[in-house]
Structures are given as structure tokens and as C-alpha cells.
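Course assignment 3, question 2. Fill in each field.
Student: A.L.
Task: Predict the tertiary structure for the chain below.
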Amino acid sequence: MGRGHAHEVADPGEPCAEARAAGTGRYVLKSLDKSDLDLVMRTGRLATYQNREHLLREGEPANGIHIILSGIVESTHAGTQGRELMLATWEAGDFVGAPYILGDHRHSWSARALGRVEALHLDQDAIRRLIAQSPSFAVALIECLGFKGETYSMLAQTLAGQKAAERLVLLLVKLCENAAQDENAPISLGRITQANLARMIGATRQSISLILNRLQDEGIISTGPTKMVVNDLAALRKQVTD
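Answer field:
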């Protein structure tokens, strides 16, 4: 689980304003009242992760979830021939550790900090205690699992049967929505390579390069060696409807 890479936080405080202000159904802490929220914060273990540190690793035994309190986390999968695929990015209020949060299993993918991240770790024993003590927490957890399942399901459905350019645009839109940053401002998607995008949508790297170059020429995105930024999400969405 990579606890050795985490640094304990002396004062847990409260979840950041982003998590509290977000909509219900996605963020596990949003719908909790103060007493339930305090119970969750007391039960969990707070830790800080620096850039590129793993909250959890694919293939390792799983033990609960990590609720993101601040920062951005990316989910990645080790593809064939050792190639790493980025699946999604998650923000404050989301948690990583799904789809299985209880029982004996191994992680299906990894979760890694993009920049500095503070998270609350709830191991399986803690989750079982919270479910027993707080029905509100149990319901919130179920709703969040539903959101995650819907996110991946919708992504799979929208990417099916489209042309490469449409699949790429739909993927970038979904990544932007998962990043949940201000849609009126540039949205950073973190480290995302043309090779990863090609493997995520079943296209060639050459075709991805041509599409990205066009989007960059139109000012919709900006690309660099370590990150991609969507400058105009509305214009990106319009690419699908045109």
C-alpha cells in the first residue's frame, strides 16, 4: 500500500473547501453532518504524498480507501509490454481504492499523486466500524461507488464505435470532467502521453499526434513534455457536436 512513502500530518483539520462545496453523489464527505464528519476524520489516518508518490499500487494487496483532501491523484494501469495507461484523474473529495473496498483482493490499478496531496486513509477495519456507526457514511460510500462505476461505464460506451478523432475528444472531455477544475479556466490533465492516449482509445500514435496538433493549432489545448492543458473545454465539447 506504500505507507512507507507517506508522511503523517500532525493536525488533521477538516476537508478542504473544495470537498465540502462539491456536489453529492461523488464526494464521500460532502453529505455528512459535522458529527459524522468528525467521526470519519478521527477514525482515519492522515498522510501527505509528494509529487509522483503512490497512494496505492496495482497488484499489491488492498486495504481500504484513500479520501483525497487536497491535490490531484491519477489512476494508472500497467498495460502490455510495460506501458503505463492513465485511466482518470481525481480531485479533493474523491477517493481511490475502488472497485473493491472490503475483502481479500489486490488493486486493479495504481493511484499516484500529481503534486502534493493530502489524503485520509481508511483501512478495512475502519470502514467496517464506520459503516456500523454511521448510516450516512455507508450511504455516501455506496453513492460514490456508483459514481465511479458510472464514470468508467460511460467512458467505455462513449468511446465505442466512434472515429479516432471523436474518441480522443470524448476521452479528453471525460478526463477534464474527472479533473473537476474550473471549466472556465484552463484544465491541467497532468502527465499524459500520446502513446497512452493511443492505447486508451485503440488508435495509432501517428493519428493521435495529428489530432492533437490540430487542436493545439486551434488553441483548444496546449501540450508539453510533462502535461497537457485544455484551454477551452466548451470548444473541445463542440468538436463532438459539429
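Instructor remarks: The longest strand covers residues 65-78. Confidence is low (pLDDT under 50) at residues 1-23.
Grade: pending
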